[in-house]
User: Fold these one by one.
Assistant:
Number 1:
Amino acid sequence: MSQMSTLDSTNTLAPTGTTWVADPVHSNVSFEVEYAGVSIFRGSFRDFDATLEGSTLAGSARVASVDVKDEQLAGHLQSPDFFDAERYPEISFRADELTLADDGTVTGTAQLTIKGVTKPVELEVEFLGIGQDPWGGERLGFEANGVINRKDFGVDFNVPLDGGRVLVGDKVNIHLAVEAVREQA
């Protein structure tokens, strides 16, 4: 069975009239940013949620759950220098009017809110399919990638380095890998 055969005639990402909830065990919200001009730093959020209803995807990540390999750095990322977890405990995302094309790509509009600033974001989304799991549930999967400028959201901490380099790059790659479970009525 092809992934398209389970969708309704509107080609929305999730069949109309269904609600899908991200399975946090099988999903991931992560980011990458250039570090010190010589490498890529990676992090993720452990505590997040996402719901897909028809053509709308909405979700959020708790800033306090930022996951990096150093506890002190995690604390710095939660400080006002970066995400300011005390004043802005969540990062949120909403995409409306998602439409699935025959090639598995998804188009639509998206809004990302970080530190109380909401900006449009373009994401490349790939629908991975819908299928049954071994326990009789129905699952849907997709991946989304995008790039933002962190300064657009008021995340502008930096340290100048020699040779004109800076400690933290401005461009941040965002990656969402979502496996969602269909809610039972």
Number 2:
Amino acid sequence: MKRRSLFGLLHVGVLMPVPALAAWLSGQPLIFPSLGPSAFTLSFGQKRPDARSVIGGHFIGAICGWWITYLIIAHGLTLSDLSPPLSMDGLRIAASGVISIAFIAGMMMLFKAIHSPACATTLIVSLG
């Protein structure tokens, strides 16, 4: 058990610096909270996903959340800037989140890159 824990610690320690380095080099926010569960699942999960599903799922999540729903529906809005009840901006940001989840579900199935933490990626980007 201790050997597996040490291996998992080292594995997560190798996985997470990749997006951290890419974020640092590019100046872009490429470290998402959903990458933590992905790294953990790859290291400790009973049924480990393949790299294609992990990378593909997060890539699809970013595309669905950012380029498709956020830019078209809620551009310029963020969930942290609370809108008044029943406002059009509030409806747009909520719709962006809902549509992005529906979209990612279909796209992950289509491309056979199913990775549930990627749903958090699409929500993070679709909500600004």
